[in-house]
Design a protein that fits this description.
Layout (H helix, E strand, L loop, with lengths): L2 E2 L23 H4 L14 E15 L6 E14 L8 E7 L4 E4 L5 H37 L4
Parallel strand pairs: 1-3, 2-4, 2-5
Antiparallel strand pairs: 2-3
């Protein structure tokens, strides 16, 4: 039913959408580089808390197969522990129970034509009102000058 991005890399994502996806599919946390994911306590009694939220997402392009991916958010914090507490490293993860489904849909040309006609009708109504206002102001000015014959 769906193709997974895991193992397929960027090839599993339709070509026209690859520019919106990072090349390493996840940034420093997913790169596997040790220096990018190291957390060091420079003073005593410092605790670390790491939070990971995973959201299953499927993308269905206009043409082609659906692609199953995961979006995630990572947040890391360091906090000063109380003097009587033992500092700890806390790892919290949350897997979203629902899937976000994104699909492309083609809209009928008639809908675009109706929107264009509506827009042009609005422009016409605006300029008719503006013309009427200018005509009324010109008549008031002439009446004040006594040239209204």
């Amino acid at each position: 039913y769906q193709r997974s991005v895991h193992g397929g890399g960027l090839r599993a994502i339709p070509r026209r959408y690859r520019q919106h996806v990072p090349g390493d599919l996840g940034g420093a946390y997913a790169s596997g580089e040790d220096h990018a994911t190291m957390f060091i306590s420079l003073s005593g009694h410092v605790g670390h808390e790491h939070y990971l939220k995973i959201v299953p997402t499927s993308f269905t392009p206009l043409r082609g197969e659906p692609v199953a991916t995961y979006e995630y958010t990572i947040n890391s914090n360091a906090y000063q522990a109380e003097a009587e507490e033992t500092p700890a490293a806390k790892f919290v993860w949350d897997i979203w129970p629902m899937e976000v489904a994104v699909a492309e849909h083609r809209r009928p040309a008639v809908e675009g034509l109706c929107q264009l006609v509506g827009f042009l009708g609005g422009v016409f109504a605006f300029f008719m009102g503006f013309e009427r206002l200018a005509h009324t102001l010109a008549r008031v000015r002439k009446a004040n000058e006594g040239k209204l014959g």
